[in-house]
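Exercise 7.
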Amino acid sequence: MIIYRNCIACVILAATAFVATGMHVSKSNMHTAQDVRLDDMAKVDSGTFIYGCRRYFCANDEQEEHELYLDEIYIDKTEVTVEEYKKYFDYVMASKGPLLLSVPLGKSRCHLHTALSLGLDSVKHHPINCVSWQKAMEYCKWLGKRLPTEQEWEKAARGVDGRKYPWGEENPTCEHALLKEGVLNKCNTITGDGNMIFEDWKVCSAKGGKSPYGLCDMLGNVSEWVISAQHEDMAKEHVTRGGSYLDYGGNKGESIRGVKVWTRRNDHLKRATWIGFRCAWSKTDYNIKLLPTVKERGF
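Solution. The predicted structure, written as tokens, is:
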């Protein structure tokens, strides 16, 4: 039950939400195929691929390209949408009982707030944003999955041939991805006063930008959390991959390093409007054991 009360800045919600039906989630959270729905996930076969940045295009924290073996994984074809995440939100609300929440009135840059205020239909196909790394992990675990490692993410984004963009070598256009040059070139919405709106698209809007495995938005739209941490202290900085609508994709001058499939960002923020995520699943822990720190391997 949702109760709206008029106020200047917010909507007060009393939520006794429902648990979404039609999901089969393992209570023990064991990673077995019987517990995880693979329908909307892409299979990335085991084998070697070219991992890392091209020479002269590497940042200090990026490895120069080399061959790397990974076991088979499955990864979501799209970024987790607001519609999907709200099922988890409703589940959490139901498990806690009636709860008072305060969210901004009307449209918000955080899509879940908009869904609670204006209704799910207004943003249901957009990627969920304003979600911390921890909440992203909890959502994936709820489904018997996990966040991908950055090695898994990169293979799913570029395939095995070492390309710099999910679609190949061609610099990005509006058909490929929503990146900053696309916003500036009016790929995105223009307001009545002629101002550009810096915000994400509905998932899979850029049909020409799919990866070799058929994944959408592996570059641009929103950046994506991965398991991997920037440093030993996982409490401070986690890695995001793929860039967002705030990042340039092409080589726009020497002072700007455009985002590529190998680009890694470290983000100490708990949540942001330009960060979302997608989930992964694997039969074995081989890929997890490649992570450099014990904390990462244990999530």
